[in-house]
Design a protein that fits this description.
heterodimer; A: mainly alpha; globular; B: alpha/beta; Rossmann fold; Coagulation Factor XIII, Chain A, domain 1; five-stranded mixed sheet; 9 helices; about 25% helix
Chain lengths: ~280, ~425
């Protein structure tokens, strides 16, 4: 029979991963629920998954492509923005949806126990699925343009894509749950999140390629752990983008560190956050 | 006690809550305090004269609980508001962590601390069953196995594929209870959820819980203010008061102990401001502040003596005519009878004292609890409570010399008119 021991003192590093594994069905159910619920009672339903990024990308084409005339490294504008936006939306989604884990689910967390980590993991998973769906659209465009010889994807290196998504996923989740752990006490952080994330987007080569910025700025942008991932992604997908090993390794290390710290803090907060929310 | 027999073991359990503002409000101040503490200096944000640390603005919701619960026991938990019942359940359900002490649980815990926890309004009844099962850590296969039982018990087969947002609150309770009662858990925790359902379903739930304990060997923990359901369900009852266990044992005796500690024995002058009031509106225009048993030294009434009360009211605005209500309950908290006063118009605002007289000749010998209330009458003739205190005081009636409450009941009715029929 299952034995549970609850004690006032608990090791900081007791992450209860075995218990988490026991609850894997719940991760999947929460993921499914978030999809079902968000498109219920809408006319277009899941079509919004396509319409949303398409409209955003068209806006980028008009705003950054036609008016600001930013370079896209010779890649067709729509493809450049659509693919860039898909990856950024995945990362930003991981951050924002996790940033309010505790406060949004306070009523559920306050009444029933399950490993709280289920929530962040399932929201990363649902963002990943959204990304996959958007990728279908990107892929269609990619094949079309590749057929016309306008882009040269590195097809044989695509096995790196899942690793890259994994890295972004854990980085996004790490940042998100650190924020959510702090928001249990300081609500004002919530307001900053949306602003911070959109600022972060402009500090990442999403609507412009890294090759167009000045050397000084480029050195600065390399500190951003999302930059090398974005560039590697472009390299694989579109055949453009500057990747260097040093900044990529740094970015991987930072991601791992942030995710680990996030899980530790989260684990600490989940024990008693109901007393402060 | 053998460990194998235990479902739950609690040792030295304490939970502290901080009162007032939880944090210092800003991150800077918090960091400052933390830094000062680290270096062993005085906290720059501490108020001068305030005690160091959280003392003085904290309280112990649970103050050292030790408890052993064997498998298959049906345990009731009672206590006044704020006695620590809900906190205890929250700690057992792992919603929050204890400040001190340890809990060991053998088996899975399914809890129903509130109706329909974890139910999502947009999802159908069936999907919610799966969701709830998964929240309990059950696999899909395990849920499949008891799905039919759940649907049958809930009496909602035809609505099971409807989103639960279209359910009435009664249907909601039925589904929620069915899920909690049938999912394969070894320990079932219920926090007064049955109050919402209809009587027939309530009885069904109680017998289901009894069955779960007796036949399936599951352990039931049930918190309620409803002594009748406690009496029906529990074979053991724990009374909490100010975060401590003050009684642990037989349900009837526990109920008597609980009611006894909430009202001082033979009190003839009571401060009502410290009791819990039930009001229709938050800021009532009338509030009962003091109650005296007129001309009494002890609350013992001889045969033929009337119950005479002096009730002090604080009135803040002109009021419609007031009706006073007394409801009598037996020592084991069975509702017995209610008496109303004629309407009384209070002219003066401020402090008023009302004399209430009730003949209690018809009561049998024994102790009784009385609830007292001030009501007004609306246009439709319904009585609306302005202020009500349940179990406001206790008194003892000396009663008739030859009377057996078990055979004759707690009160005797007026004489039967007997006549010969020709």
């Amino acid at each position: 029979m299952q034995h549970t021991h609850i004690s006032a003192r608990q090791s900081l590093f007791d992450l209860k991963l075995r218990e988490f594994w026991q609850y894997r069905d719940l991760v999947w159910l929460f993921t499914r629920r978030s999809f079902k619920v968000s498109y219920m009672q809408t006319i277009l339903g899941p079509l919004w998954l396509f319409i949303n990024p398409l409209l955003t990308s068209i806006t980028y084409v008009v705003l950054f492509g036609s008016i600001a005339k930013l370079s896209t490294d010779g890649v067709p504008q729509l493809l450049f923005y659509l693919s860039g936006h898909a990856l950024w939306a995945f990362f930003a989604g991981c951050v924002t949806s996790n940033a309010s884990t505790f406060t949004d689910n306070a009523s559920l967390f306050g009444k029933v126990y399950f490993p709280r980590l289920v929530m962040p993991v399932s929201s990363v998973l649902s963002r990943l699925i959204q990304f996959g769906i958007q990728m279908l659209m990107v892929l269609a465009l990619l094949i079309w343009y590749a057929g016309k010889g306008m882009v040269a994807p590195l097809w044989q290196r695509w096995f790196l894509l899942p690793l890259l998504l994994l890295q972004l996923g854990i980085l996004g989740m790490g940042v998100g749950i650190i924020i959510s752990s702090l928001t249990t006490k300081y609500r004002d952080l919530r307001i900053l999140v949306d602003f911070g994330v959109s600022l972060w987007m402009y500090a990442t080569p999403v609507v412009y390629p890294l090759s167009t910025v000045s050397d000084a700025l480029r050195r600065l942008l390399r500190w951003n752990p999302v930059t090398p991932v974005m560039e590697l992604y472009r390299r694989l997908l579109l055949g453009v983008g500057q990747v260097d090993g040093v900044s990529l390794s740094c970015s991987i290390l930072v991601s791992l560190a942030v995710a680990f710290a996030g899980v530790l803090i989260f684990n600490r907060i989940e024990r008693t956050f109901m007393d402060t929310v | 006690m053998q460990e194998q027999e235990l479902a739950l073991r609690i040792r030295g359990l304490k939970k502290q809550y901080r009162l007032g503002v939880i944090n210092r409000g800003t991150l800077q101040a918090e960091l400052q305090s933390w830094w000062a503490q680290k270096r062993g200096r005085d906290d720059p944000n501490r108020r001068i004269g305030a005690e160091t640390g959280a003392d003085g603005q904290s309280f112990w919701a649970l103050d050292g609980i030790d408890l052993d619960i064997r498998r298959g026991e049906r345990v009731g938990i009672i206590g006044a508001n704020g006695a620590g019942k809900s906190t205890l359940l929250k700690l057992i359900c792992r919603i929050t962590a204890p400040t001190e002490g340890e809990i060991d649980i053998w088996g899975r815990v399914s809890s129903m601390l509130e109706v329909g926890t974890g139910f999502h309004r947009e999802m159908t009844g069936r999907e919610n069953i799966y969701m709830n099962g998964a929240i309990l850590g059950m696999s899909r296969a395990e849920i499949d196995a008891c799905l039919e039982n759940i649907i049958d018990f809930s009496e909602l087969r035809e609505f099971i594929d409807t989103p639960v947002k279209r359910y009435s609150s009664g249907m909601f309770v039925k589904l929620a209870f069915s899920v909690a009662a049938h999912l394969r858990s070894e320990i079932m925790i219920m926090d007064e959820v049955l109050a919402v359902g209809d009587m027939a379903f309530q009885q069904k739930c109680l017998s289901r819980m009894r069955q779960a304990a007796d036949e399936e060997g599951r352990t039931v923990l049930y918190v309620s203010h409803n002594m009748t359901t406690i009496r029906q369900l529990c074979d053991r009852c724990i009374v909490l008061s100010h975060g401590r266990v003050i009684f642990d044992g037989d349900a009837e005796r526990a109920i008597a102990a609980y009611l006894n500690q909430s009202i001082g024995d033979n009190d003839v002058d009571m401060d009502l401001t410290v009791k819990s009031h039930i009001r229709k509106t938050a800021c009532s225009s009338v509030s009962m502040t003091r109650l005296r048993l007129a001309d009494k030294v002890t609350a013992v009434y001889e045969p033929g003596e009337d119950l005479r009360l002096l009730l002090t009211l604080e009135i803040s605005e002109p009021l419609p005519p007031l009706y006073f209500r007394l409801t009598l309950r037996t020592e084991t908290d069975l509702g017995l009878a209610t008496a109303w006063s004629q309407p009384l118009t209070m002219e003066r605002s401020g402090e008023n004292t009302v004399r209430l007289t009730l003949p209690i000749d018809s009561l049998a010998k024994g102790c009784f609890y009385a609830s007292i209330g001030v009501y007004r009458c609306d246009e439709l003739g319904r009585m609306l409570p302005l202020d009500h205190i349940s179990h406001a005081f206790k008194f003892e009636a000396s009663g008739l010399p030859v009377w057996n409450v078990n055979a004759h009941g707690y009160m005797h009715l007026p004489q039967i008119r007997a006549a010969c029929e020709t």
